[in-house]
């Protein structure tokens, strides 16, 4: 899908948002954040390169006129058009691919990742990479590499099926390299991972500064997801090696990294980011749009809002709720939020768990709610049970609505809550149940916490602060600097990020 939406305004700063599975084709916290930035900056021209599932996903956000271009880059569905290279070009691409997969599997060869990725990006641009990766040559390259003496993966005895699976996963993951990269302005990747690929290409070819914002830690979430993925270890070694080296390359090359919390910063520094290139920018909400929620429900209720997804760990929440009901039989659990396509099995598993624990009648899946404030108002206490988060919107929105919260200690949750809510370890139903009961049994404490939470949002986490900060960053990175000799160069931070992929 390619949508042209308006005309560019001369002299107006230009930002290309690089997204994956979010804005403008999906709802959710990161999509809300993107919409806030875009609608809050009518003085900036925006384009969007959106990594999607099949490319047939509809636009679910109303785009303002200064979003000029939306290009969808499907990772699945119909393979990209193109033919495998031949002759010398085929040999050169096979050699580059061999260096690429060697870097993924051999710690001593990791320096070859960046130059090989650059070569693959050129092949993707001329339409030969995807076809090459669906050809027998790519399979032969991988099987040759991971059977080399000394590689740990060799001990797992990789099979031909492993090679086919790993190569297919890489082919899909590398499809964003075929997207036309931005040629000017700022490339703003709103997550790590494959969304960054067009930004790295733009940096290499056109010197476009790369801005990277991580809400959750993309690499950590890949580790969590692949832990239970139905692949043998040789496949996981290839794919997770790719995500790790891509994260490290992104951290090294970005002109500026703006994590949504201090927890993410630790991962980024560990991944090789220069601490001087990291600037924490918290998510914000408009307190006027999320006013105090008003009276609590008469029937004691725990509420939750988000997308129904394994990373949200609703199973722990349901188990905790069953423990709460052992002490307070009249309590209800209301779950607000949609189920992403492909996530139906997880929702069914959660519903089955509630039934197995004897709580089917007390746990309700409400689906998407027209006004998210209704989800927060529906609970005496608002719950968050995730095993990975950045700086969750649902939490600060609930806080702005004056509701007491019980949350898991992941990502920036503790930074958001401070002492205005209770924070418990992830994957600990007993601790979560105890915290929920503590607040359900103490109305005065709930009220005091809710009032303090709203005040904390007003003082520290407003939308205006977030938008003003990013407007300043966009102008900082896109503004050229005039040297005495008359030469125009990028700002210092952008120059740091613009060094060649080959060195």
UniProtKB/TrEMBL annotation:
The protein's matches in Gene3D superfamilies, at most eight in alphabetical order, are given as: Glycogen Phosphorylase B
Keyword line: Transferase
Q: Which GO terms describe its molecular function?
A: glycosyltransferase activity
Q: Which domain of life is it from?
A: Bacteria
Q: Which residues form the DUF3492 domain?
A: 14-275
Q: Which NCBIfam families match?
A: PelF
- The protein here is known as D-inositol 3-phosphate glycosyltransferase
Give the originating organism.
Streptomyces glaucescens
